[in-house]
Structures are given as C-alpha cells and as structure tokens.
Amino acid sequence: EAGVTQFPSHSVIEKGQTVTLRCDPISGHDNLYWYRRVMGKEIKFLLHFVKESKQDESGMPNNRFLAERTGGTYSTLKVQPAELEDSGVYFCASSQDRGGRTREQYFGPGTRLTVT
Amino acid sequence: AQRVTQPEKLLSVFKGAPVELKCNYSYSGSPELFWYVQYSRQRLQLLLRHISRESIKGFTADLNKGETSFHLKKPFAQEEDSAMYYCASKGTDKLIFGTGTRLQVFP
Q1: How many distinct structural domains can be found in chain A?
Q2: For the residues A97-109, what does the mean pLDDT come to?
Q3: For residue A109, is the peptide bond before it cis, meaning its omega torsion is within 30 degrees of 0?
Q4: B20 neighbors B29 (Cβ within 8 angstroms)
Q5: CATH class of the domain at B3-55+64-106
Q6: Which of A45, A108, A110 sits opposite B95 (nearest CB)?
Q7: Where are the domains of chain B?
Q8: What is the CATH number of the domain that holds A102?
Q9: Residue A11 belongs to what domain range?
Q10: Whether pLDDT at B102 is above 90
Q11: What is the model's pLDDT at position A70?
C-alpha cells in the first residue's frame, strides 16, 4: 500500500513568488494534516481536514497560506506571496477514524521549501 | 496551552550504552503522548505511544504524571538507533511536537 505522498520533494523559489504543495493521503483516510518545521524549531501544526472540511486551522500563520482539499482526497497548500520566513519542511499526515477515535497519523516524506 | 519540551538537541553515546531521551510536557488533563522517530532519509514514523505500554525496538517510555515526563529509554543502544527523535502530545486531533533530539550512537 502506498503511503502518504507529497510533491514536490524540494522547491526553491524567490521571495514574492507563489508555490503550491501537494499531499496525497493514504486511500480511505478521512483525516489530513499539514505541519511545518522551520529550521531549528519544532514541528508545528498548521491545519486539519476531515474529508473536505477544515476541522482546525488554528496553526495557519497568516492569510498568505491557503489550504484546500476539494473532493476530500488530495490536498494543496498554497503560499502566496512567499516570504523568507516560510522556508522549512512541510509535512503532511493522514489518519483514519475507527470506532469513534482518530488513529495513528502517517506522515509523508515532506516538502523542503526554500525561499530566497 | 500544551507544550512539549525536549531539553537536549543532541545525545551521543557509544554502542551498548544506555540511552535516555528526555521529554517533559505541560497539560492539565490526561495527556496522550507519543515518541516519533525519523531515520536518515526516511519519513517520520510512530515509535511508541504511552497508552499501549509496549516496547518497540527495545525502547520503552513511562508516563510520569508527577514529574510530567515521558522519557524514552533503551538499556543498550545500537548503531541503527541513530536518528532524530520527537516527543509529541495529542491536543484534540493535532500533534504537538517537541524540538527533537538527535541521537548519535557510535560504534
């Protein structure tokens, strides 16, 4: 079974440009999460989808970040316009609900974003 | 707000030595705690969770509510244990991570 996949693996863009990151969760997983690790800091939660709905977006840093999950399958995270402080590794994770409880989160390999 | 603290950025030991990776949490309720590991060139993966009280790859972690700690231990480190280790707590459905500790096990 394929795990969580993310594209691209690495993106280098200039400040002010737009970048779109994609995450494909494990098939059948309703829950999809985005996290970010900025250099030297902890992995921080950005937001959580349940199917196509945003369950919790309390971690989104500002309105330059837009996440979507149309159809409840894959998700995109767009940064527009990118700033230097957006550089970091963006992780996606997915999990399924079973018996009323959310199960283990499975992580993708991450997308390394470098803003120059 | 929930917080997870891992005071050590780097822990270096020799093969066969005991290992303890420290993790402290702040949470007023009943925490759900995890250890995640990321080996070189691999993705982040769950190592163990406190509710299952299991031992994975020789690692154990005990929740100490009095000290608000969830330290990860292994009696005899192996070279293949070298990796980045993250302690995390679960808040609603999201994970709250510590800054991670890099474990280096020398031959």
Answers
A1: 1
A2: 78
A3: no
A4: no
A5: mainly beta
A6: A45
A7: 3-55+64-106
A8: 2.60.40.10
A9: 5-115
A10: yes
A11: 86
